[in-house]
User: Fold this.
Amino acid sequence: MAWAVARPGFKVPLFRFIDALPACRDAADVLDHLDGYLDTPASPWLVRAGLHVADAMPGGARVASAVARGGVRRMATRFIAGQSAEEAATALEALWRDGFAATVDLLGEKTLTAADADHYACRVAATLAVLTAAATSWPEDRRLQADPWGPLPQVHVSIKATALAPLLAPATERQGIDEAMARLAPILDHARTEGATVHLDSEHDEVKDATFALLREIGAAYPDGPQLGCVVQAYRTDSYDDLRALVDWSARTLRRPLQIRLVKGAYWDAETITARAHRWAPPVWAEKADSDANYERCARLLVERAGDVRPAFASHNLRSLAYALTAARRAGLPDDAVECQVLYGMATPLHGALRDLGYRTRIYVPIGELVPGMAYLVRRLLENTSNDSFVRMHSSHGGALDILLAPPESDLEPPAAPAVAATDPDDPGPFVNEPDAELRRAGVRRHLVDAVAATATGFAVPVRIGGDERSTGETLPSVDPGRTAVEVCRSALATPADAAMAVNVAHGAFADWAARPPRQRAAIVFRAAAALRQARDQFVGLMVVEAGKPIGEADAEVSEAIDFCEYYGREALRLAEGGAVIDVPGEANHLRYQPRGVAAVIAPWNFPLAIPMGMVAAQLVTGNTVVFKPAEQTPGIAWRMAQLLYDAGVPDAALAFLPGIGEDVGPVLVEHPLVASISFTGSKAVGLDIIERAAVVRPGQRHVKRVVAEMGGKNPIVVDTDADLDEAIPAIVQSAFSYAGQKCSAASRLIVVRPIFEELMDRLAGALDLVVIGHPSDPAVKVGPLIDADAQRRVERYQALAHREADVVVHRKDVPGDGWYAGPMLCVAPADHPLATDEIFGPLLTAVPADDLDHAIALANATDYALTAGAFSRSPAAIERLGMELRAGNVYINRHTVGAVVGRQPFGGYGLSGVGSKAGGPDYLHQFVDPRAVTENTMRQGFAGEG
Amino acid sequence: MAWAVARPGFKVPLFRFIDALPACRDAADVLDHLDGYLDTPASPWLVRAGLHVADAMPGGARVASAVARGGVRRMATRFIAGQSAEEAATALEALWRDGFAATVDLLGEKTLTAADADHYACRVAATLAVLTAAATSWPEDRRLQADPWGPLPQVHVSIKATALAPLLAPATERQGIDEAMARLAPILDHARTEGATVHLDSEHDEVKDATFALLREIGAAYPDGPQLGCVVQAYRTDSYDDLRALVDWSARTLRRPLQIRLVKGAYWDAETITARAHRWAPPVWAEKADSDANYERCARLLVERAGDVRPAFASHNLRSLAYALTAARRAGLPDDAVECQVLYGMATPLHGALRDLGYRTRIYVPIGELVPGMAYLVRRLLENTSNDSFVRMHSSHGGALDILLAPPESDLEPPAAPAVAATDPDDPGPFVNEPDAELRRAGVRRHLVDAVAATATGFAVPVRIGGDERSTGETLPSVDPGRTAVEVCRSALATPADAAMAVNVAHGAFADWAARPPRQRAAIVFRAAAALRQARDQFVGLMVVEAGKPIGEADAEVSEAIDFCEYYGREALRLAEGGAVIDVPGEANHLRYQPRGVAAVIAPWNFPLAIPMGMVAAQLVTGNTVVFKPAEQTPGIAWRMAQLLYDAGVPDAALAFLPGIGEDVGPVLVEHPLVASISFTGSKAVGLDIIERAAVVRPGQRHVKRVVAEMGGKNPIVVDTDADLDEAIPAIVQSAFSYAGQKCSAASRLIVVRPIFEELMDRLAGALDLVVIGHPSDPAVKVGPLIDADAQRRVERYQALAHREADVVVHRKDVPGDGWYAGPMLCVAPADHPLATDEIFGPLLTAVPADDLDHAIALANATDYALTAGAFSRSPAAIERLGMELRAGNVYINRHTVGAVVGRQPFGGYGLSGVGSKAGGPDYLHQFVDPRAVTENTMRQGFAGEG
Assistant:
């Protein structure tokens, strides 16, 4: 461990190996993992030597595997007190007799299904029963059994709220709390009658508010007991405010003062990573000193309000503990008014010292098996090896107590979110992704819900060519697919003649637009990005009501549209600098990229803002003029987008807006001799037809057309035997069922290596049962309506087929009556069944078992599509292989397969999924320009002026 | 001038302006040029202020123009003594009476036609007559009229050999010398009878040997006189050897010792630039000190051998002159044994000082008009402003004589050519172009001629699939198009079944080849490059005899093939590093490029090595397997190329060789569902047909095919009124007629702004008359045979049409009888005539007059093709505009339009000339790969290992 600490290059693979170890099937599998993670130059030579010995020796694999398992088991038993309630009772009695109180934590925090949660709640209840019964025989210990405000139960259990309710999450907080309350009721009743403290642990940021909300509901329901406890994490920037509110609430509500355990917090890495990745303000302090200072501030408040609450200080940092205990003494509190809490197996000399000083010392004791305990174990290892942890500093600084005990220096200024400002075309700076709304905050959710409710509907969408807006005789209503009585807008219908005129006008505008300085065009798309930021709420609302898109996904789509503008604007400026060519004396060479002409942009409805904005902005910013044909289903969003572009400065003639029926105007656009390129996103059938038609050079045509087509997918997710199912299952649900599976990137095939097939199906079914179906304006909803009646009929047809010909594992039928809903389905079918080969574009996931990873990859690749693919594995070799071999334009390892982000996951397929170079990637704009090399002989009369 | 010297940023545009000035039509035109060149921040404010005054004032343009012309004229009259022979006589008499001898130089050195050369020779003869007649009345001056070895004529004329014969060039040296001798005869006769020295000046490197060869022929023909002279350029690394040889020759051959003028040399910039651009060893010393030291070495030899030759020292460098004169005295020579030579108008105080010291001082006196004198003027200005010229140093160092007169430090080690070595795939280093053979050296030419003569013919070319070579029942002879009785090889004819089998085999080999490490594939193409270097002679020979390609162009094509291998090898390694994507914490993103599958490569005959090598190497090195279908006309070269690739390590199954008839196997390859991409170079008709066929997705096809097609062109050259016709005409001839116009890049339309139309036609006709037609194994030949009888019939059809419907300006009929020759033709036709719109692919250039530059650009762009375009202009604004507006993938300004070089001029067209991204450019390989984004969630149990 000491060795690992000093070598970050070894620490990461070591922890990953430890994480994966419980999922290994046998000795050879352990060795493979050991080999994959640890046979690197950063590993100590002994480890590497061991690996090679294992290869060479008969039985070597078993030996090495046993050594590895043994090592990890030793690490685990250091931190985990036992597997069963009975083992726990024995361990706790020993501690009690040694002068320590305890709080029991049942490992297994990740529950994905109702069954998981029921199981957890039963285990807690059973453990509680065993412990309360056992405790009756423990000797009395006054110091442990009372404080100035009354008696304290001998038994103390720490519960993770999320383990009680898979829906305990920001968007489904209400459902989650109700579930949790139902599962807690027997536990609370038992604790009240038999005498036990029920303590809610703190977890990630996402569930902090829900956990406190649950606590308040418990308190309201059980004001007289049992004794309750909770945790405040001093590393959070809002913890002091939370603490004050909790103290007030306890004073106001509870008869037995709430026990508050003050900790620093154990998820700093994850919280910081999540916030940085989303460009949100981190909820935690940036520096250790800030957390330490805040800990001390919170400790002062706790001792001031002791009696309203029961203070407990949990830390292994000597200074923090000493500060809190001194503050208590200085405030005149007796030593038994506060409690010290420590972790089982961590810094054990400290435990005894605190006890010997006379403090009530409570040990946090995890109970359970290695697999569910792995997250806990890794957190403990991280703490032990973090560079600025007290434990780590203590070991490296030796006895320099004056350094270790120095007061933390901090002004407690919370870190801010990175600034978001309009882009200066003269100095755009590097591209960064637009932050999504921070929907884990209730206020942010409320704001968006209100915005959606306020969405203006009932407007008219015209045809607009050369700045001339007009309606048409026939019009098409666009309705809310989740409430089909609501007409969002009414769209004009362009005719083939309109299409031809639009091309001609765009062609007439081309020379001027193409000749503008690239910076001027970039400035326009940057202005469009700024306008989208301003109009964010409006577009979210429209996407919810016109496209049936869940509110959070609609929000993310606005970010994506902004990203496209910001990214392509910068890329166009880069392109304007030209390509790399070699100069020699006497010769000046330039490789320039020039626009191609009129572009037809034919857009889909499922990303009704981001995809057309990306396609249109890319063509415009490179100097092409555009005829934009939006999808029939989402003319309203498209029209608002077009208006935004005109307002941002796109000339009237450079962008024609052509709502209408694809069959009417599509062929005209595709075949028109003045159309130079076609940007299409949609179905394979239409895409291939466009490719064929566009390849014919027609009279009057002066170029070969370029088609950039993004088509469909039948996207697989492969699950290997050592996958972390806790991670895989939510990701599979998200990949297959978010937005009712109506994404070209959605997973529709689940290929599972057989040993874990049944387990995965069971848990996935349970998770799918919990998916919230409904109108997408409710942030809890993951599955909204399908886009239209055709889509509903198609999905229902495949669902009927599944009932006839496949094993249906889940078919949810609890869908709203008003709207084109289809209930999510999970079925098992042969790999060559239409359910496993046709793109269904709905909430239907077909699972196929595979014999091994080879077979799984072969099944995954047995499709003409090649769009997205996912894979779950914890074997480095398998990860490498899956990344190389899965036939897909976008491969995602150990995460969901949807929501590609501009600049990070350039998006697009090959095979029959697409033609062209990935949207949101560095090669995309090249497709919309022709390269030109200009060479000037700079030598005149033998004189070149160089060198 | 002093100001210009200090500011290189101003010197270059100033010289360019001075160069262009004589070609300006009127005052406004002068102002435009002045403005274009000099209105930059580097210009002195007075110039810029003047320009703006000129804009604002009525008549301002005329004033500024007059000022500019006046200034340049003053500069010119400082260096040029007069325009006519009579003016020269007056000036020379004045010099004579002032104590100076003179040598007259008739400006107008660039002769492109026989008429130009006749005109020059007549001017020399007439000037000689005027001067010898005039000199009879000059007073006797013993110092100027005799040296220790006898009398010296009063009249002395310096002649540029190239002005006597446009063909006096390396490849046509024999023709050039014969021509020059014929034109010199009356001059030499007159000089002998009337008493005059005939002196051959030295020029560029290219004609140094030819000039000395001419001198020897003169000496052999006129051993008794007239007095002869020549120049040795001490800046040349071979000048000491040349000098020794000349001295020996003079001693052996001539009755009157040869006068040798020792100079440093005036073309250092150009010689160095040319050599660096070609990566040849520079023929001149790298440092000024080397030239100075060599000058002194040569001076010692001259004084040692005085008597065998008559030494003359020409320099404005005081140290060099003093050294030479001191050496003469130290050798015991009387002062009249040596002569000093100086330039008219340069460092005039020196002239008087030398005369006053008692030395015979001869002034080099240019006579003539400003336009032809511009090159001379720019050379003098360069000398005056070069940073290390003595004149310049004198003015900047003031009187620090000890610095100026310090001995030059040099070990006289000649600069070497950059090394060419096989590329190490582990450390390939930056790409550099392969040097062509230095054909300006007679030895190199002889070597290649011998290699061509030794070309092995009569071999059999098999079909080769999966390593299995076999002949076919039917075969096709491939003959020398310039000697149709010679069979180069006999080629098997692949059947459609062969084609299908080849695709299947290549498909079977794909997975293995694609999975190889990119470095391994790069290593193979680097080995191919090295093998091509070794087999250079063999390929040159085959291209001459099988493709009818002139020897120099065949040589350059081998370089291009090597370049493709070296460039794409490096590009593939760059591609293997992946594309630029953004990472955020907790997520690892990679943008990878993977091969697509089986590629069909369908190659043309006109670049039978470089184009297929480029297409095949690009597909192979990116991991695709290839079915290579060579052109019917050049199976022999293709087979040798394929063998070279197999030998370099391309697996048998990864490359199929499929000679045959395009109509038989082409459609099978294009339509085969297992073919992923098609690389085609050839005609527009075939290319468009391929594009259409390939766009249809057929049963069993799992991808959309990618077609990269390079098709035809009807390439224009635009000549603006201020073009330098001396530069334009040879470039036009090269562009339109080299390889008999059989290049897709060849110019076939000449668009000339009207004021210079007639002059250009006249001179171009004269230049075309001199083009050497014949079998391409003769290095003198520019126009060889057409590729086959079909081509000959097609060209003859258009030529007949020209005779019927156009103005035929030139139609050469002096073609060999044995072979598919067509004589070069220049005609004038309307812009919409088939002669001006059809791709003829032969030696036929159609000229079209244009009203102005706008009209010229419109005419140039009035074609569906967009491949190459050329333009000649000396107006910065026009150059910028032509570079931006000419519709062509490759635009060439002030040079020929053929011979694009890998890495420097990425090559390829758009419009109906091509689909795809330029061969030999940074985007080319992207076409043969599919992008894949792989995203790994690196966060496990809340732990990512970053930050």
